[in-house]
Amino acid sequence: MRKNSISSYKIAATYIGTVVGAGFASGQEILQFFVYHGKKGILGLLIVTLLFVFYGNAILFLGNCFRASSYKRVVFEIAGPIIGKVIDIVIAFFLFGALSAMIAGAGAIFKEQYCLPYFLGSLIMAVLAVLTVIRGMEGVISAISSVVPLLLTAVIVLSILAIFYLPGEIYENFFTPEIKPPVKNFILSAILYASYNFLTAAAVLIPLGSEVENIEGIRKGALLGGIGLGMMSFLMFFALIKVPVSFFFEVPMLYIASRISPFFKFVYTLILIGEIYTTAVGNLYGFVVRFVTSDSKRFHTFTIIAGGIALISSRVGFANLVHYLYPIAGYGGIILLLSITCKINNCRKM
């Protein structure tokens, strides 16, 4: 593929695909970081949309500036050897934590929607992820490209149906005081939501930026991607507040789908499981290659051990992992965003 053949639309699609994972599709991320703040959550979504546009463009541009094939080079260039090492460790930590969250999410679907053992769903997802990573990533890359468009379509259609089809007043009882958000301040909540997403997105956006020759294409791609992410987040926000009882489910969007029709629930379940699978595989692979190369003799052993430990840690529960892990990772991500803010102008002058 020629570098100048990467259009702004492909950049936007890749950007959205790196941010929209199973945590987003389940509804838990929007619920925890925005809905629990009530009407202030709307302002939080406006803030996070602006952050997605600005820092998406900045990360792509840094990848282009340094012609970096890996996020590590840019991280150490903009943050220095000491802070860069900290960011590197935080990214590895979050990759593993997000893997545990995906395994837990599969267990939650099995338990809530099919009355099957929680551990069975988690075990199946962990085994599938390990087997896929051991065999290689070529098939998974094509799987991600096919699952993401289906996921985006399902999220948009489901949210619109929930807002306009399901009965009830959209602002009625949508804030539940007895449920406490993981981050009390809605502005900080929005910043943390963006920052932890950029921890994993940077691993894809930086090398993508290095392949683009047209800077204007980067700007348009980041703009389209950021607005697209914001639009989907707003739609999901209003869908969730339309059905407040969904707050008490680990996979709230799946509950909303069941309220619309059994068929829609079935379709959304398949798409969500597919997204959990591709996200789990990406996180497991990213975590493993951080420590051993894919052609190493220890690669298979390390993959199996990492998958087993993630299965054990998934017992904490999907909602709890989102509630506690993601904000912690967000604080680490803030260091990355601050480093980008300080160095982006220097790169433009090079």
From TrEMBL:
Coiled coil: none annotated. The keyword Transmembrane applies. The keyword Transmembrane helix applies. InterPro entries: YkvI-like (IPR038728). The chain crosses the membrane at residues 12-36, 42-66, 86-110, 116-134, 146-166, 186-209, 221-243, 263-287, 299-318, 324-342. Keywords: Membrane, Transmembrane, Transmembrane helix. This is Membrane protein YkvI. The lineage of its organism: Bacteria, Bacillati, Bacillota, Clostridia, Thermoanaerobacterales.
